[in-house]
Amino acid sequence: MINSHNFKRQGLATNLTVALSAVLLIIAGSAMATAAEHHNQTALVGTWTSIPDAPLVQNPGHPSEGLYRLKVNSDGTLTQLDFIKMKSPSWIVKSHDGRFAYTTNEENAGAVTALAIDHDGKVRVINAVDSHGQQPTHATISPEGKFLFVANYSVAKGGASVAVFPIHHDGSLGEQVQNFPFTHGSGAVKDRQDSGHAHSTTFTHDGKYLYAADLGGDKLHAYAYHAGQKEPLQADSTRDVSFPAGSGPRHMVFSPDGKHAYVTTEMAGEVVVFAVKDDRLEQQARVKLNTENSSAEYRSGGGIILSPNGKFVIAANRGSDNRLVVFRIEQDGMLGSPVRYKADGIEPRAFAFDASGKYLYVANVFTNNITMFHFDAESGALKAAGEVAKMPTPTDIKFFN
C-alpha cells in the first residue's frame, strides 16, 4: 500500500532538489560568465614617456616605454603582458566595435597612432599621423566612426587646436582635413590661461554637435557635425559656452538621455551641470569637488565618466586632494550630494570600468600605479581593493574584450 504522505514528502524533496540544482547552476553559470569576462579582457595603459617635473612625483626609476598591454585576471588584478614602444601615448580611444584604438602621442611634436586589436587581444600599429599641434591630450570618434577629433592642448602659445582626421575602413588614419586653432586665453590664471588650450572633444547625445573644452579660454566651443562632408565640422559660436574667468573647463559627459551635460573645471575644481535644449547648453548648477578645503592646491578637477548603468557621475579631484567623487544623477538631472573616496594614488588622471562594470580602475600618474575599486551599481559606493599594477607614469586605461 502506498503511503500518500511519504509520496508527497518524496515529491516535495524531489522538487526542492531540482530547484536547488537550478539555483546552483545559475550561480555557477554567473560565476563562469564573470570569470570568462575577465579571462577574455585585456587592458591598454597609456603613459607619459618622460618623468614629469612636479613636486608630488614619485620617481619610477626609469621612464615608461610607451603603451602597455595587461591581462585582466579573474580577481580583477592586472598582469603585464607586453608593450609597444612609442612616445607618450597619453590618451586611448576605442573604436565603437573594439577592433581598433587610437592614442594621442602627447609630445611637442604631437602625433596620433592607429592600432589594430586582434582577436587574441594582441595589438599592432597600423599607422601614425602628425596631430598638427602640440601635446595632443584627448580624442573622440564620431558616432558612425568616420572621423577622429583630436584636442591639441599645447603648453606653448600657438600649438592648441582641434584637428580632424578621417578613419579608413582598415582602421588607419588619413591626413588631417580640418584644424580649428585655439588662440586666445582668458588670462585669468597666469601661465595656465595665457593662450587657448584644447583639452577634450565630446559629442552631444544625438551626434549633431561636437563640443571642445578650451581650458585656456574658459570656453566650450561648439561645432555642427556633418558626417557626409569631407570637412565635417562647422563652427557655431551661437552655441559656445563661457565659464567664469579662471574656471578651466577640462572634460565633459552627457547623461544617458542626452538632456543634461556635466563638465569638470580644472582650476575651479567643480562639476558644472547644464540642461541641454536643442543642443544648446544652459547652466543649472555648479558643484564643488571638495567641500572641505577651498584653497587652490585642493582644486584640480580632472576626468569625468558615467557609471555603466548611467545612474552616477564619477569625477576626480587632484592636486593635494586626490579623490574620486561620486554623484547620483537625480530624476531632474541634477547631481546628489558628493561622496568622496581616496584614489589610493597621486594625480588620478583617468579611470575606467572593465567590461563587467563591477570594477573601476584608476591611473595615478605621480605614484606610478593603477588602483582598483569594487563598484556597487545600486548605491554607487566604491570599495578600495588597492594597487593592482605598477608602471611608470600611467595616464589612461581602457579595456578590450
From TrEMBL:
Q: Does the keyword Isomerase apply?
A: yes
Please name the GO terms of the biological process aspect recorded for this protein, alphabetically: glucose metabolic process
One Pfam match: Lactonase
> What name goes with this protein?
6-phosphogluconolactonase, cycloisomerase 2 family
Q: Which UniProt keywords apply?
A: Carbohydrate metabolism, Glucose metabolism, Isomerase, Signal
Query: Which InterPro entries did the record assign?
Result: Cycloisomerase_2, Haem_d1_sf, Lactonase_7-beta_prop, WD40/YVTN_repeat-like_dom_sf
User: What top-level branch of life does the organism fall under?
Assistant: Bacteria
Which family is it part of?
Belongs to the cycloisomerase 2 family.
Single annotated GO MF: isomerase activity
The positions making up the signal sequence are: 1-35
